[in-house]
Amino acid sequence: MSHPNRNRYAPDSVTPPGFYIREKLEEIGMTEAGLASAIGLTAVSEIVDGRAPIGPEVALRLEFVLGIPARFWNSAERQYRDSLRRNGGVGDGHL
């Protein structure tokens, strides 16, 4: 009999996607305000701080501006929100 969750990786904590945004902004010399302007979204600081989720459309905009694939942002966001739910936090909704 198979146990679907037996070998499932579930880390105690997951890095918020905003951490990677902040790193990339530093690397390319762009500010959060500059990113907000480039992707047409004012909630960049909330995303960077992990208070607002990255939705699929925002992930595509981040890919275009930062050069990091949307699939990375989607995956990082899903893992982060799943971790919050597992650990008693919240994390529903998308921008």
Task: Please describe what this structure looks like.
This protein is mostly helical and 95 residues long. It has one domain: Orthogonal Bundle (434 Repressor (Amino-terminal Domain)). The protein is 56% helix and 0% strand. The protein has five helices and no strands. The chain has helices at residues 17-28, 32-39, 44-48, 56-66, 70-86. The longest helix is centred in the C-terminal third of the chain and has 17 residues, at 70-86. The relative contact order is 0.17.
| The CATH class | Mainly Alpha
Topology order in helix (H) and strand (E) letters: HHHHH
Please give the CATH architecture: Orthogonal Bundle
Q: Give the tally of β-strands.
A: 0
Q: Figure out the total of helices.
A: 5
For the largest beta-sheet, the strand count, sense and barrel status come to:
none
Q: Uncertain segments of ≥5 residues (pLDDT<50)?
A: 91-95
What is the molecular shape? globular
Tell me the distance between the termini: 41 Å
Q: Which structural class best describes the helix and strand composition? A: mainly alpha
* Named CATH topology: 434 Repressor (Amino-terminal Domain)
Could you say how many structural domains there are in total?
A: 1
Assess the beta-strand content as a share of residues.
under 5%
* Fraction of residues in helix: 55-70%
Q: Taking all residues together, what is the mean pLDDT? A: 86
Superfamily (CATH H level) name: lambda repressor-like DNA-binding domains
